[in-house]
């Protein structure tokens, strides 16, 4: 599988193990991302994300999503991001955690990257998708 990138209106990236290049792809969006995912998705993706961000000397702060995109959860994530001085958010997973990521982005006006989890489960090619 080759890497495919197109803009509409942002950027869509898909390719084998492309999550390992997350640091390269988010370079220039900001200086320090907040990475948001639930623990199941983090256990699957953390090595690729950590190595990808470290390869570009990108500091980050991980926040475990607590399972429901409630106002309390959104406020908790925002507060933790502000405490850690993050300037953009990477949401990894799907459904509720991405909803929380989008709410975070809209409420404080920061950029976001969305890495849906539909390729993380049972994909023999280890494909990755990122929306920037």
Task: Explain how this protein is built.
Helix 3 crosses helix 4. Strand 1 and strand 2 form a beta hairpin. It contains four helices and seven strands, in the order E-E-H-E-H-E-H-E-H-E-E. With 132 residues, it is of the alpha/beta class. It has a four-stranded parallel β-sheet, sandwiched between helices. The chain has a three-stranded antiparallel β-sheet with strand order 1-2-7, with no helix packed on it. The chain is globular.
Cα(first) to Cα(last) distance is: 20 Å
Task: Return the string of H and E elements.
Answer: EEHEHEHEHEE
Uncertain stretches = 123-127
Q: How many DSSP-defined strands? A: 7
Helix content: 25-40%
Strand order of the largest sheet: 4-3-5-6
Gyration radius (Cα, Å) is 14 Å
Question: Strand count, sense and closure of the main sheet?
Answer: 4 strands, parallel
Q: Sum up the overall morphology in one term.
A: globular
> How many alpha or pi helices?
4
Q: Mean pLDDT, nearest integer?
A: 78
Proportion of residues in β-strands: 25-35%
Helix/strand class: alpha/beta
Task: Produce a short descriptive summary.
The protein has helices at about 20-25, 40-55, 70-85, 95-110; strands at about 5, 10-15, 35, 60-65, 90-95, 110-115, 125-130. With about 130 residues, it is an alpha/beta fold.
SSE arrangement:
Layout: E1 4-7, E2 11-16, H1 22-26, E3 33-37, H2 39-55, E4 61-64, H3 71-83, E5 88-93, H4 96-108, E6 112-116, E7 127-131
Parallel strand pairs: 3-4, 3-5, 5-6
Antiparallel strand pairs: 1-2, 2-7
